[in-house]
Amino acid sequence: xxxxxxxxxxxxxxxxxxxxGYNKNIFWVIDGATDLYHLNLFECNDDVAHYVRQLSxxxxxxxxxxxxxxxxxxxxxxDTNDLLNLKxxxxxxxxxxxxxxxLARVTDSKCEYYILGDCVLLIKKKNKIITITDKRLLxxxxxxxxxxxxxQKNGRFNSENETNLYRDVRQYMNSENxxxxxxxxxxxxxxxxxxxVDIDDESMFLGFSDGLLxxxxxxxxxxxxxxxxxxxxxxxxxxxxxxxxxxxxxRSIARVRKKDxxxxxxxx
Length: 268
Prior knowledge:
This protein has helices at residues 47-62, 69-83, 138-153, 159-170, 210-217, 231-247, and strands at 3-9, 18-23, 26-32, 98-106, 110-116, 120-125, 128-133, 182-183, 193-198, 204-208, 262-267. It is of the alpha+beta class and 268 residues long. The chain has one domain (3-134, 180-267): 4-Layer Sandwich (Phosphatase 2c, domain 1).
């Protein structure tokens, strides 16, 4: 496995809550859910950013060829909690750090994948592109976007009302009537999208957070086609996305953040 390009950039918050990593034949992208409760669990600027950075290091430490991907993640979450002295019973889990995650393991003939939340894995296989993500979260993403539009139309769009909107949706995490996501109590860990795809020597892989997804689904800078498996093309897409986001600072294109954290990793 060879990493051809990688990138992670903070959006409009004080910390980057995204992180990526790779070790041996495993790579991953973690997208921390925006810190809505500011519990100051770790005496830092951003609990979520701090948590996902430690989680990424634990995944690096636990990466191997034998264990199931779900077990690598479960162990890494528990290791992270121990290292950070996190007492998970002190608060409701939805108030504590949560995250979307993509973990993939590449062998000579297969790509195993584990996706929880709205991270995306693209696999280029000959002339075919396979898109894998967890679509169950999309309904709640749209609920947030619709809520933003409603607040804007009613003249009630302010920081307090926006935060309350997101908090209402966050309470649905890891429930049968809600969405599944990574969390400190591992409640959603077994409900990920998991599987494997046959690959060959020419196969390529692009993993990314939903910050890059906006370039394709909201701003329509590029189609998801073979061109995106190119480092220079990805740089161009990010540059154009950031420009369009800046030009639309009032969010006439409804989205949760003016400028989201953005991460990708391109692998062969």
